[in-house]
Write a structure and sequence with these properties.
By secondary structure, the protein is α/β, with parallel strands linked by helices. Among the domains are: 199 residues, 3-Layer(aba) Sandwich (Rossmann fold), CATH 3.40.50; 115 residues, Immunoglobulins (Immunoglobulin-like, Sandwich). Helices cover 28% and strands 20% of the residues. It contains 20 helices and 26 strands. Strands 9-6-5-4-3-2-1-10 form an 8-stranded parallel beta sheet. The chain has a 6-stranded mixed beta sheet with strand order 11-16-15-14-12-13, with helices on one face. Strands 18-26-25-20-21 form a 5-stranded mixed beta sheet. Helix 7 links the parallel strand 4 and strand 5. The longest helix has 17 residues. Bound molecules: alpha-D-glucopyranose. Alpha-D-glucopyranose binds next to loops. The site of alpha-D-glucopyranose (GLC) has 8 residues, from loops.
Length: 723
């Protein structure tokens, strides 16, 4: 297809205003309504295909979500272009968060690769596949900061650090939106869920959120600001109440913060039926009040619920809301449709035989690469990689399971995924025997004995276990973060054999591994790695891939420790080696303060040594930068990748600051025996924080600069800042 004309913002605004002036009030309100083609989901109004088609013909619906049938999308677009008065194109949106048909690891897993280029590349592939199948927008990246693994949606997120999460968010946006939205192969990106959704009380989905303005701006806002500064097309609000106001009706945070202060010029869409849920929150008294509060807060498109199409016309005619609120929202929506080229070619995303763009070989190779880099080696008592002449028993349901794509898996299919068993067929000269021992869920223990018998005859046991994919994702909060009971029973019987055992865990969140840590010789975190899961895991266990992933979320020692995260405050009675036996210290009677595995932690088959950290100056002034350098040496027996992490610590500030703040990272390749000097250039902006007056500044004083392989394993130097 020919490239679409590149239209300047000025030209687009001219066209938008010209169209707006032709629109009736009903037609304007129609652009602010997004519905599922036929809504059979748990919440929201019941719609039918017929009812949607009727609205389309009257230009009273602007976009459709969660429709994957490309032919149906084409039919609806044709209806809109050929039978409506103004021929305004629809846009089609879906949740493509880790692949469309080619399935990549879940986002939390991909974040552990710390590989921004690969994350961008997988987003490009998702955009390539989806944009060849009728889709114009994805509800991704999910950029909620997460510190509570009881919340099932951590699987969609990028971890507990604002800096890393911002960098990753940018990779997604660039991958989806490309250089120009009107190009082919692009998707409009919609980051979510604004804001604070990851901090729901008790880790219970849809629950209440409360935080200071500083916490919000310092920790939860940065990834959204990065997306806004990089022209993301849309932002989705979250279900939760935040600071006593439901997010969907939160004018201070939507209109004042996003649209005015941060100058966000895309559109804001409410989450699924969340507008009407303001009645459940007891914040709106009826549907008309919902419409009023949502629009006044700055919601531009209402998803699923119908308060806008049922009430806005009356609210305008009765002068309860000014028309310009509607016009502003409509302009934002039409601007997106112009930018993505739908007015030039409403059929730009429809192709003959759209399936031929899916699951391309070169894209599966990218899926394998990012799956390998998402694996985190948590423990290895020198049993890995497994020697070729060993008898290997693969025990557990994830030996042969293809249930490895994780939730929010769009149009991907388990049958396209490789299990460990599938992958083993390419390793003919290895001796692997499989026995599942039990299912992922349920209580059928009848196969455990057979698994134990097979394990007894082996030299090394791979225990392939984990969560079912529906145990994480939306509405999947857990109070207990252990393996399913039947698998715990299997693991217990296998560990009694006292053989070399490698625990391979599939999960959508950090699980509590404390009981296994001391009993297993190695622990490999395999998340849900998507289509290439089995191959990535076996390549790693057999040494064809040297693991390099590092945790972006702390792994609690126990559920009782939650929330536990690396960038915590020191408190007035912080626990240290020296005072650990004193009573009046901030500590537990029964467990350590530290998580089992820290943010930034992950092992390799080789070893890296950090030395010679130094800055190029002792003091830096206002607009200067400074360089901190470190030598990293590969002192082990394998070539490998190392994520070099750079943290700062303010020694004093007008407010309390964390013991560690990630400010940079570099993923380097080191051959066995090789040393590389790694440099980070930092400025006062990198050392800034919201101070007592809520100004984001770097105050005068001494700052430690710490570089290392994990948030809890660094070497340090220091530098003074003088304004
Ligand atoms: C869901 C999710 C949101 C998703 C939307 C559309 O409830 O909260 O992440 O994008 O509905 O499917």
């Amino acid at each position: 297809m020919d490239n679409l004309p590149k239209r300047s913002d000025k030209e687009i605004q001219y066209n938008v205003n010209k169209l707006l002036n032709k629109m009736t009030l009903k037609e304007k309100i129609g652009q602010l309504y997004q519905q599922i083609y036929s809504n059979k989901y748990a919440t929201g109004p019941t719609t039918t295909a017929k009812s949607i088609e009727k609205l389309i013909k009257k230009d009273q619906i602007g976009s459709i979500l969660s429709l994957y049938d490309t032919k149906k999308m084409y039919k609806l677009q044709k209806l809109s272009i050929e039978e409506s008065r103004l021929k305004i194109p629809l846009f089609f949106a879906n949740d493509i968060i880790h692949g469309y048909r080619t399935c990549f690891p879940i986002p939390l897993a991909m974040s552990c690769s710390w590989n921004l280029d690969l994350i961008k590349r997988q987003a490009q592939i998702s955009a390539y596949e989806a944009s060849h199948n009728g889709i114009n927008m994805t509800y991704s990246p999910m950029i909620d900061l997460v510190r509570d693994p009881r919340w099932g949606r951590v699987m969609e997120a990028n971890g507990e650090d604002p800096y890393l999460s911002s960098q990753i968010a940018l990779s997604y946006v660039k991958g989806y939106q490309g250089e120009d939205l009107s190009n082919y192969n692009t998707l409009g990106a919609c980051c979510k869920h604004f804001i604070g959704y990851g901090k729901v009380e008790g880790g219970r989905d849809y629950n209440t959120v409360d935080m200071s303005d500083r916490t919000l701006r310092q920790y939860y806002l940065p990834p959204f600001k990065t997306c806004i500064d990089n022209n993301i097309a849309a932002i989705m609000t979250s279900f939760n109440v935040i600071n006593d106001i439901p997010m969907t009706g939160n004018k201070k945070l939507i209109k004042e913060l996003l649209k005015k202060e941060l100058k966000f010029n895309g559109f804001i869409i409410s989450d699924y039926n969340s507008s009407m849920e303001m009645i459940n929150h007891k914040y709106a008294k009826d549907e008309k009040d919902v419409a009023l509060k949502s629009l006044e807060a700055g919601i531009d498109i209402e998803m699923i619920s119908e308060s806008f199409i049922n009430n806005l016309e009356e609210l305008v005619n009765s002068k309860e809301i000014p028309l310009n609120l509607i016009d502003d929202a409509v302009k934002r929506v039409l601007t997106f449709k112009y930018k993505i080229g739908l007015f030039d070619n409403p059929y730009k995303n429809f192709y003959e035989d759209s399936n031929k763009y899916l699951l391309l070989k070169e894209n599966r190779e990218i899926a394998l690469k990012i799956a390998e880099e998402s694996i985190v080696l948590l423990k290895d008592n020198n049993v890995l990689p497994i020697d070729k002449n060993k008898m290997i028993a693969v025990i557990g349901p994830f030996g042969k399971s293809k249930n490895v794509n994780g939730e929010w898996d769009a149009l991907s299919r388990d049958k396209d995924s490789t299990s460990i068993y599938d992958a083993s067929k390419q390793y003919k000269d290895y001796k692997l025997k499989f026995s599942d021992g039990c299912d992922i869920l349920g209580n059928d223990d009848s196969k455990i004995d057979k698994a134990v018998d097979i394990a007894k005859k082996s030299d090394v046991i791979i225990l392939a276990v984990g969560e079912d994919k529906y145990m994480s994702g939306e509405a999947a909060s857990r109070s207990n973060l252990d393996l399913p009971n039947i698998q715990k029973k299997l693991v217990k019987e296998i560990l009694k054999l006292n053989k070399k055992t490698i625990l391979v865990v599939h999960a959508g969140r950090p699980l509590i591994l404390t009981d296994y840590e001391s009993k297993c010789d190695a622990i490999v975190y395999a998340w849900f790695l998507g289509n290439e899961s089995g191959k990535a895991i076996l390549n790693t266990l057999l040494g064809f891939n040297n693991p390099s992933g590092k945790l972006t979320m702390s792994f609690p020692y126990s559920v009782g420790q939650i929330p536990v995260y690396y960038n915590h405050f020191s408190t007035g009675r912080g626990l240290t080696k020296e005072n650990k036996n004193q009573k009046y210290i901030s500590k537990y009677l029964d467990i350590p303060n530290e998580p089992l595995y820290s943010f930034g932690y992950g092992l390799s088959y080789t070893k890296f040594k950090y030395k010679n950290i130094k800055t190029n100056k002792k003091t830096f002034y206002n607009n200067e930068s400074f360089i901190v350098s470190v030598d990293v040496e590969n002192i082990g027996d394998y070539d490998g990748e190392e994520i070099v992490e750079c943290y700062i610590e303010a020694t004093n500030f007008s407010v309390v600051r964390p013991v560690n703040e990630l400010k940079g990272f570099k993923k380097i390749h080191l051959k066995k025996g090789e040393t590389k000097k790694v440099l980070f250039t930092l400025r006062k902006e990198d050392l800034a924080y919201f101070n007592i007056d809520m100004n984001y500044i770097c105050e005068e004083g001494l700052y430690y600069i710490k570089i290392g392989s994990s948030s809890n394993k660094t070497i340090k130097t220091k530098i003074k800042f003088k304004p």
